[in-house]
């Protein structure tokens, strides 16, 4: 796997009628607009200026419903939604393509076919459906080097430097990410994580990886089940995942667990050596949270 030498840069932008945070994501060549307060029109326009200034190809942001038309009037498009993202309220996934070519995908027909096939497996997951030779457990700091080796073997490139054990260690230490792993003969052969937002009570299921020789054995489904169990216990409202749009297996996994397909982010991540479209899958754990 190629190592990203510099991940990116967090910046706080303060203007007379808006303040917002942004993440300049160098590896994925995108700007993420985060947590703006004030004038949404100015936030949209300023982020476009920043995107061009930094030479990024795309802006991504998640906003409340009332802000959607204001952003769309300034060149953003709606790519999907996440039910319950804002502590029970729906978040809308918007994008602006500073590089117009970044907004074009010639694989939509094939990706739509994968969604159709995946939705045929809705709610078909049954727990404990794996061979007894596998052990599912939470990862600890002692596992970071082995996890880094796993991700290095599975991915040619990845949106974050998961082949760096120190990076993984910092994730675990932050208490903002939890990992579940599958072991076979005391060796980690599959892993997945949940990226936690303690304030908004949502979590992203991500960093799903299985060694090639252990695929097709239901390991990822079992890891997702164990992550969900932990998150349910901790009263998270909503779970979501951004899944590679051309990967049938991972999309089937989330459909089996009752996630709903709610959109697609075009050329969103640089993974496996190129930009790829990502499908948005959403599962609300607490329907009536208020």
TrEMBL record:
Residue stretches making up the N-acetyltransferase domain: 134-277
Molecular function via GO: N-acetyltransferase activity
Keyword Metal-binding on entry: no
A Pfam family assignment: Acetyltransf_1
SUPFAM superfamilies tied to this protein: Acyl-CoA N-acyltransferases (Nat)
Xref: InterPro entries: Acyl_CoA_acyltransferase, GNAT_AblB, GNAT_dom
Keywords: Transferase
Superkingdom field: Bacteria
Name of this protein: Putative beta-lysine N-acetyltransferase
Annotated organism of origin: Desulfosporosinus orientis (strain ATCC 19365 / DSM 765 / NCIMB 8382 / VKM B-1628 / Singapore I) (Desulfotomaculum orientis)
């Amino acid at each position: 796997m190629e190592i990203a030498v510099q991940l990116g840069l967090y910046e706080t932008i303060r203007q007379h009628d808006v303040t917002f945070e942004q993440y300049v994501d160098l590896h994925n060549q995108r700007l993420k607009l985060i947590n703006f307060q004030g004038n949404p029109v100015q936030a949209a326009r300023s982020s476009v200026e920043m995107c061009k200034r930094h030479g990024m190809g795309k802006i991504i942001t998640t906003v409340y419903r009332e802000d959607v038309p204001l952003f769309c009037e300034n060149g953003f498009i709606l790519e999907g939604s996440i039910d319950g993202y804002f502590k029970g309220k729906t978040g809308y996934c918007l994008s602006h393509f500073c590089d117009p070519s970044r907004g074009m995908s010639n694989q939509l027909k094939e990706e739509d076919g994968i969604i159709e096939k995946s939705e045929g497996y809705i709610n078909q997951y049954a727990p404990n459906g794996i061979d007894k030779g596998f052990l599912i457990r939470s990862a600890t700091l002692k596992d970071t080097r082995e996890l880094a080796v796993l991700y290095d073997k599975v991915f040619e490139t990845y949106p974050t430097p998961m082949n760096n054990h120190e990076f993984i260690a910092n994730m675990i230490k932050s208490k903002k990410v939890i990992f579940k792993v599958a072991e076979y003969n005391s060796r980690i052969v599959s892993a997945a994580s949940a990226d936690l937002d303690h304030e908004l009570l949502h979590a992203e299921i991500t960093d799903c990886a299985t060694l090639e020789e252990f695929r097709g054995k239901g390991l990822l489904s079992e890891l997702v089940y164990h992550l969900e169990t932990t998150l349910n216990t901790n009263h998270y409202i909503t779970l979501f995942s951004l899944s590679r749009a051309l990967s049938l297996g991972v999309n089937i996994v989330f459909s089996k667990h009752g996630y709903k397909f709610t959109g697609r982010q075009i050329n969103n991540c640089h993974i496996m050596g190129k930009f790829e479209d990502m499908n948005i899958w959403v599962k609300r754990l607490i329907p009536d949270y208020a």
